[in-house]
Amino acid sequence: MSTTRPCSPGDRGPEPSGASGASAGRQVRTLSFDDQSGVVPLARDFARQALYAWGWLPADSADQRAAAEDVLLVVSELVTNACLHAEGPDRMELTCDNKVIRIEVADRGTGQPAPRTPHRAGRPGGHGMFIVQRLCLDWGVVRLPGLAGKRVWAELGAPA
Asked: What pLDDT does 144 receive?
């Protein structure tokens, strides 16, 4: 499912499922891409460090390892889309509570991300948002009225 909604400045958009604003179990990490090159590997490394800090890695089981790899893949897809379609990302924010990790990538682009339909597995390219849609509990786009750009967010469930 995807959601696009405008919001007022200061509104962070929908909270991660199961998160309550200032919950003690909620952790946030932010990466600025200002004047950075190699932003996709930078974002993956940043996300991997967060996953270690939050106990998702090292994984104790195949399911936990798969959940962490899904997070890293979604980070790569969202940052790559910002590079290809929106003049590059401005920042990435990762939010984690006990049940959900939320990835937000902010950019200055005006486009609307969407999975290509119909999805054609054999064709090169165009799989990014299809992958995000398949791996995530939910994803969407938040636009701030009067400001350029958007935040593309995606949520994945914590490993069992």
From this structure: 77
